[in-house]
What we know:
By secondary structure, this protein is mostly beta strands. 0% of the residues lie in helices and 47% in strands. Belongs to the universal ribosomal protein uS17 family.
Amino acid sequence: xxxxxxxxxxxxxxxxxxxxxxxxxxxxxxxxxxxIRQSKKYHAHDEGNxxxxxEIARIIECAPKSKLKTWEVLPxxxxxxxx
Length: 83
């Protein structure tokens, strides 16, 4: 089974090697046919403490690392050189 990858905004980086990522998803309400925005916060493992609050982070499923952490952040992508 493939591991899920989600993208969201880091809302907290207070913990050591831990960030809280808020992932927002949109879907159509089954009866009202109105677009609904729903968000959920995930605790993710950040080994190098590289992410700060407000940054966009991609997280991937992993084996449980603690009571709340079952996700880890993917490394930041290197900026592309636009020549």
